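User:
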Amino acid sequence: MSTLSLRLEAVRRQAEGIHAFELVRPEGGDLPEVQAGAHVDVHLPGGLVRSYSLAGDPADRRRWTLGVLREKAGRGGSAALHDRVRVGDLLAVGQPRNAFALAGAARHSVLLGGGIGITPLKAMAHTLRQQGASFELHYCARTEGHVAFLEELRALVPADRLHLHLDQGNPTQGLDLAALLRTPTEGTHLYYCGPAGFMQACAEASAHWPAGTVHFEHFKPPASTASALEAGAFEVRLQRQGITVAVPPSQSIVQALEAAGRPVPTSCLSGLCGACKVGYLEGEVEHNDYILGDDEKAHCLTLCVSRARSPVLVLDL
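Assistant: Predicted structure:
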């Protein structure tokens, strides 16, 4: 997939450990059109590639805004962006992808963000406000000093629809998710994003909601997820290329294709971003991703974490 060469125009401190990074075309002009919930891959110093949600107003095509938390225990991407990238630097940025889009027919939307998970939800708030749609935003954080984009959110979201839940580091003092989500109303859609514990709590509190009304995006795969490489061996047939590649238990499909000289675009390698999503034509798939809906799983898979339950998978490649 092609990349854009974008200039870092500004870096703004947003909250404790969180900076906003604004990217523009060096020559000026509009960036590609995006929808709320989209993310992009950013190529960082040291050969790192990381996916970040676009937190700005999707209607503003002059710049893309990333909100990034510097993670002390991360894999180095956020540290590289915070410490090694400077205003004026050029960065290679991938084309936008979106596995967390707004539903078109919602009567009301509940946006629920934990920590840095506010980034895609802020973009949603921009779009919903412009549409004149009914929505509310709940932001869970430790203190007000940990709330990113606070002034923008106060200007964007009506005061009676913006709810800050500050737990001072004690989750028992924060938002009562079970109470908030106990009774879903007809036509209401829920969107949530945040750290692992927050994601699990939201999933449990919304498990009884009607199918198709709950939407979420993980930044990291849940810690309890078993390795997708524990499954047995199988073959993948690349239909358009006319070759078959063996996938042993010790390799993912991505790794097997790369070893066979048929590399595919990747980013997260965790089933979170959709960079390696492809169609399949035959076979039974074990889906281990966190982005595909049930309708997509009938014809698509992610090559980084999906495996086969059948001896052969026929891919549209």
